[in-house]
Amino acid sequence: MSDDRLFKQRPLWMDAVAVALLMTATFKIMANATISPALPALEASFADVPGADYLVRFLVSAPSLTVVLVAPIAGLIADRHGRGPLLIAGVTLFAIAGSAGAYLPDLNSILVSRLLLGVAVAMTMTAQVSLVGDLFTGERRSSFLGWQTATVNFSGFIFIGFAGYLAGLSPRLPFLIYAIPILLLPLLVSIGHREKHAGEGVEGVPASSTGVTPNQRWVIQALMVAALAMTTVSLFFLMPSQLPFYLDRSGFESASATAVALGTLTLVGGCVALIFKRVCSRLGLALTLSVGYLVMGGGFVALAVEATWVFILAGAALIGAGYAFVQPGFLLLALKVAPPERRGTVSGFVTTGMFLGQVISPIVMTPFLQIEGFGVVFFGIALVLMLLAVLSLLPAFLRLEKKSGAT
């Protein structure tokens, strides 16, 4: 039996490269959230710096800004020069730029390192999604994306908890967590061989190909998927960005209540994501996306009904469960619409869409919350999600899935 056949049959958790790719997927949550527990102490340590209160808070979102700008470029590089080299370079830069905050002398230099961290995230996310398309097909690809969502959820729970412990010792120590991915580099070296082999088979073409496909409709389809990802993430991001304020205004101790609610969301989402492949294989991609949006909408309805623990936990659990279907769903859709030689470009579009959703969510939603209040906005979000559930079942969407089913 060839190594490639063995690779295809081996369970994901037993394959070193698959595990490494799963770990790199956690970078998108590591990039922003890991230093959050250290922010108050960091602000105190730079109290003499003008505007430190704003700059310290910007350290969390700074990587998202550069991801939005760099991801499309990273996608083009991945298509031209290969996904494996880009991933290895991105992981290396992630470890260096991320951990730099532990020893850089001033706040401005730390801010620069956070912007560079966003460049690394753009490189790794774009290359990682492209490689998932290159190395996995059919139900195995669906299974990987489900595992990926679960891994991101569980790792966020672990990383934030570990960062909280380190922040209690020193506000600089959480930055050292970013150096951990350097351990993945030995596992990623063999990706080049598998990428080349995938490029020679029916699954793809060599990553260095620069030809243009005759049918350019994939560009419009890819931009539509990126817009779907941006919209979905911007709605989902109300949970980490606005839930603390909702709980505070409802009379809860916001810090502990937020930890419980978001912990429920991530743990439920992680568990549900493990059955994504099974659900998607039975229902199909379109119906799975529709169910995910309906469940998310139900979660926001629960939050809007009443600010009690029953509805808060039910809402958080439903939103986490629905998003566990939706996120791997739109990633799978992106890989379906992407020509093999353009997977890097499409991955760049979708990565930009996801991080742009994080950036615009508080900008767009905060004025509505201030004017209308949380209950009205939560009901409105539920209606938007139900509309997305309907749009997921449009005949054109179903034809796209059927046409791409063999991808």
TrEMBL record:
Topology versus the membrane: Multi-pass membrane protein
Protein's UniProt keywords contain Transmembrane helix: yes
GO function terms (MF aspect): transmembrane transporter activity
Record carries keyword Transmembrane helix: yes
A Pfam family the protein falls into: MFS_1
Main localization, broad class: membrane
InterPro entries: MFS, MFS_dom, MFS_Efflux_Transporters, MFS_trans_sf
UniProt keyword annotations, A-Z: Cell membrane, Membrane, Transmembrane, Transmembrane helix
Domain Major facilitator superfamily (MFS) profile: 17-404
Subcellular location: Cell membrane
Transmembrane stretches, start-end: 12-35, 55-78, 85-104, 110-132, 144-167, 173-191, 218-239, 259-276, 283-303, 309-334, 346-368, 374-398
A single cellular component GO annotation: plasma membrane
Protein's UniProt name: Bacillibactin exporter
Organism: Roseibium album
Gene assigned in the entry: ymfD
